[in-house]
């Protein structure tokens, strides 16, 4: 469970350009919930993900993950529980290394779920099997440098690699914003599958209202650093796609 209590994040405090990016926000996310966060530009969505991952520390307030107060822990101290995929497909993998070597690195770091570390054929076969689940044919290209793949292919692989053994939380920050519709669909359905298979608590930030409608068990709208709408699973079922379009005028 993630419990966020009265969290504030202010940038440039006391200066003319002070911004209250997150403004006294309270949020409880239960285990295995898949929360979609929508909201206009600058409403504080990415800042909230940065606060949860620990890449930003709050100005005030607390964040508790599964009973541990992580408020003052840096991102590398939280990273064994938290996987994160960013908008830019190039951030998450090493371009000059092969797909297989990227998986080896990830497995050495904290062990990718469903893989046993190794340099032998058994490891290669496991990686191939894992990659085959994407349905992109990449299992036949595992010796190819990551840099030769398309953004969608890289993003899908990043997703597979980011979910480690102790990982409990998956943070997706506009993971499909730079992708064509077909690749976006593969990335989103892979995220959904991983989330269910490994019983992750998932938070997706998106501007894609179709994804917000189709994925997740709960939808939250942010504005000016606060939550202005929060639809839990039962209420989300009754939402129409048009309701979402209306929120954005
Ligand atoms: N490092 C920073 N320094 C100063 N201001 C920042 C910083 N990061 C974010 N902000 C400001 O905080 C506010 C919230 O930004 P944030 O990126 O969280 O919004 P967002 O909802 O994710 O927007 P978008 O949909 O455009 O990605 C914005 O006004 C932004 O300019």
Structure write-up:
- The protein is an alpha/beta fold and 249 residues long.
- It has one domain (2-247): P-loop containing nucleotide triphosphate hydrolases (Rossmann fold, 3-Layer(aba) Sandwich), CATH 3.40.50.300.
- 34% of the residues lie in helices and 24% in strands.
- The protein has 9 helices and 10 strands.
- It has helices at 45-53, 75-78, 99-110, 121-132, 151-162, 181-197, 209-214, 233-238, 241-247, and strands spanning 2-11, 19-29, 34-39, 60-65, 68-69, 82-85, 169-173, 201-205, 218-223, 226-231.
- The strands form 2 sheets. A 6-stranded mixed beta sheet has the order 6-7-8-3-9-10, sandwiched between helices.
- A hairpin with a 7-residue loop joins strand 1 (2-11) and strand 2 (19-29).
- Helix 5 packs parallel to helix 6 (181-197).
- The longest helix has 17 residues, at 181-197.
- It is globular, with a radius of gyration of 18 Å.
- The mean pLDDT is 90.
- The chain binds adenosine-5'-triphosphate.
- Adenosine-5'-triphosphate binds next to strand 2 and helix 1.
- It comes from Mucilaginibacter corticis.
- One of its GO terms (molecular function) is ATP hydrolysis activity.
- This is ATP-binding cassette domain-containing protein.
- Residues 2-249 form the ABC transporter domain.
- Pfam families: ABC_tran.
């Amino acid at each position: 469970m993630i419990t966020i209590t009265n969290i504030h994040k202010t940038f440039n405090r006391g200066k003319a350009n002070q911004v209250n990016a997150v403004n006294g926000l309270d949020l409880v996310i239960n285990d295995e919930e898949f929360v979609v966060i929508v909201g206009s530009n600058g409403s504080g969505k990415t800042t909230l993900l940065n606060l949860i991952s620990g890449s930003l520390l709050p100005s005030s307030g607390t964040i508790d993950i599964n009973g541990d107060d992580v408020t003052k822990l840096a991102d590398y101290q939280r990273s064994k529980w938290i996987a994160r995929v960013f908008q830019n497909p190039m951030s998450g993998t090493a371009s000059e290394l092969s797909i297989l070597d990227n998986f080896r690195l990830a497995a050495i770091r904290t062990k990718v779920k469903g893989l046993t570390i190794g340099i032998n054929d058994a490891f290669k076969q496991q990686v191939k099997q894992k990659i085959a689940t994407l349905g992109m044919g990449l299992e036949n290209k595992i010796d190819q440098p990551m840099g030769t793949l398309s953004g969608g292919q890289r993003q899908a692989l990043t997703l597979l690699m980011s979910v480690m053994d102790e990982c409990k939380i998956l943070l997706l920050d506009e993971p499909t914003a730079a992708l064509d519709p077909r690749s976006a669909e593969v990335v989103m359905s892979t995220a959904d599958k991983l989330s269910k298979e490994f019983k992750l608590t998932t938070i997706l930030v998106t501007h894609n209202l179709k994804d917000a409608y189709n994925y997740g068990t709960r939808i939250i709208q942010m504005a000016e650093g606060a939550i202005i709408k929060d639809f839990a699973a039962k209420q989300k079922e009754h939402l129409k796609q048009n309701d979402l379009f209306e929120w954005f005028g």
